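User: Here's a protein and a ligand (manganese (II) ion). What would the complex look like?
Assistant: Let me lay out the input and then the predicted complex.
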Amino acid sequence: MTRILVTNDDGIGAPGLAALVEALTRVGRVAVVAPDRQQSAVGHALTVSEPLRAFAMPWEGTELCYAVNGTPADCVKLAVSVLLPWRPDVVLSGINHGRNTAVNILYSGTVSAATEAALLGIPAIAISLDTYAMEADFRAAAAIAVRLVELLPQLQLPERTLLNVNVPAIPAEHIRGVRVTHQGRSLWRDWYERRQDPWGREYFWLAGEYELCDSDPDADDVALVQGYISITPIRFELTDTATAQRLKGILEPMQRDVPATSVEGDGAAPEHQSARL
Ligand code: MN
């Protein structure tokens, strides 16, 4: 049976996590290692200056479950290296409350947990439902997660490539299908709301409006608003290779024009400096 690690960024008590775990325990051996509190928009942060603690909890149908006082990426790292008795065949992150498309991928703790798994060489799927409604129905998203786990061997994802899945928040029978998409260019137009606490002290709260910036039907947000499940294979290769190639001709010759740096003492360049400087 497939060994599945499940995590999220909305915290161990989130209804999306419960729906995902419930569905996956029917098709695999499930371990849950998730943050002990809300960790949305923490991106790929790791805890490096506080102790990390993992609290074992009972969760029916799972092999083990821990709440961790850290980030989603902490949870995956800690689970794989310390907490789990086995190496997972797949890591699922979600089901997130709210879409993780376009620029949101960068901020998302949900996607970062899956990215961490991919960096560790484990196939990974991030899954999000396009709503913030408290009464959200996660069943269609949980069902697609199960299907993807079953299909995974067939997909032959390259190492370090993960699937970013976004599900429209409409009744399952209205979902028009699946579209394989690319990361879109939609953006938040955001601002800070200025508020006052009960003591009259000012505080700020990030708010904003999401602006759809694509029209291409294969852009993740467009597929989603058109009623499709959006599945984007993503990888974290951030280099702009075309620009790097072009800049080689401009920036690399610059090194020859830089005057030799004088160094305190005998003036000899330290060994680690390039001889050409
Ligand atoms: Mn979240």
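Summary: The chain has a mean pLDDT of 93.
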